[in-house]
Fold this sequence. Notes:
Its cofactor is pyridoxal 5'-phosphate. Pathway: Cofactor biosynthesis; biotin biosynthesis; 7,8-diaminononanoate from 8-amino-7-oxononanoate (SAM route): step 1/1. Catalyzes the transfer of the alpha-amino group from S-adenosyl-L-methionine (SAM) to 7-keto-8-aminopelargonic acid (KAPA) to form 7,8-diaminopelargonic acid (DAPA). It is the only aminotransferase known to utilize SAM as an amino donor. By secondary structure, the protein is an alpha/beta fold. It folds into two domains: 9-67 and 347-451, Aspartate Aminotransferase, domain 1; 72-344, 3-Layer(aba) Sandwich (Aspartate Aminotransferase, domain 2). 36% of the residues lie in helices and 15% in strands. The protein has helices at residues 9-17, 57-60, 69-79, 93-105, 119-136, 157-161, 166-169, 196-214, 239-251, 303-307, 329-344, 347-362, 401-411, 433-451, and strands at residues 36-40, 43-46, 51-54, 112-116, 144-148, 180-182, 218-223, 227-228, 234-235, 254-258, 282-285, 297-301, 371-377, 380-385, 414-415, 422-425. The strands form four sheets. A seven-stranded mixed beta sheet has the order 4-12-11-10-7-5-6, sandwiched between helices. A four-stranded mixed beta sheet has the order 1-2-3-15. Strands 13-14-16 form a three-stranded antiparallel beta sheet. α3 (69-79) runs antiparallel to α11 and α13 crosses α14 (433-451). The mean pLDDT is 97.
Amino acid sequence: xxxxxxxxxxxxxxxxxxxxxxxxxxxxxxxxxxxxxxxxxxxxxxxxxxxxxxxxxxxxxxxxxxxxxxxxxxxxxxxxxxxxxxxxxxxxxxxxxxxxxxxxxxxxxxxxxxxxxxxxxxxxxxxxxxxxxxxxxxxxxxxxxxxxxxxxxxxxxxxxxxxxxxxxxxxxxxxxxxxxxxxxxxxxxxxxxxxxxxxxxxxxxxxxxxxxxxxxxxxxxxxxxxxxxxxxxxxxxxxxxxxxxxxxxxxxxxxxxxxxxxxxxxxxxxxxxxxxxxxxxxxxxxxxxxxxxxxxxxxxxxxxxxxxxxxxxxxxxxxxxxxxxxxxxxxxxxxxxxxxxxxxxxxxxxxxxxxxxxxxxxxxxxxxxxxxxxxxxxxxxxxxxxxxxxxxxxxxxxxxxxxxxxxxxxxxxxxxxxxxxxxxxxxxxxxxxxxxxxxxxxxxxxxxxxxxx
Length: 453
């Protein structure tokens, strides 16, 4: 296997003190740490001058390229004016203008905006706000949440409580709430001859059964619309969202849409919920919200929810949740500039061309003897590697076949960081068709090497 050059001084300093996320640090005895000096559009440039095509948008955050000059200029301008101010009892133009713009572009009925500073924090806000709404309404018995099998909503204890990826959840299970799990509408789990839409209807029937049994104790159903990202890029039909909205209305529970990863154009529409024509009770946003520049998240909700907290202080109904950097002016300003790019440029139209090209290039992998599935929703695509295709038997986890693809990608100047043995593509929107070709060619070659022997 090809390797990168020996670690430079920056890497040695890093490994002397830092503890990196989602990483077994022992791996870096053999897996290279890659020191980056700067970004350039869809590319990352190493301290040694090597260039890496960012096929995963740096954990799904970057939309319009690294060091985007338009967003960078807005950030610099704001930094000369106001960097931060307490957001309790104070306000400022970037936060107000961003809230107005988010209300304008999100599905109808989401008229109130609560800021936090990362995706997990947004989920915490939505969970607490949903529970507190029902408590304020005299329904303190509602204390549970329904989540989908295979779901992932973040790493803080509340967010992890409504997640179902054992890799992240198992260790901390004694500390967590116990969710009610509804079977995912994942189209990969279709019976022979069953369509994605039919899977959605079958799973809605199972969700109905759960609600009939548990609605009295349930605050909300939380889902990642259309794509369960960290759970392996599992994808499902929009009909499930439409049916979910109807069931939540029927059984008087909230619908929380976690659009942290899928929002801002990733699925082909600005928000995934649009493809079902539904409005959730809570929409959680982060990642692409700032174009990948700064941490920021937002929870949008309805006037009905807001009104349940609006009372004299003595009533004890206030939502007393806070973050020190709530409504940070720098982050709000770059988020405004990110949304302005969507407004000023034909982003979604360009993405349709790029996603069609990606689909065309990946189509050849459908016949590969170790590829069980090639799936795509907008600018998100995934290739599922298996040991036995007819039986869909996975490779033993200890084989770490996906890691082999990652390592090969680095030697070829491509950042492809699989989820287990799922090789996925979620590039910045500034990528070109030629750069997509580079990503796919590198992935195909990496897959051949990974499944050999």
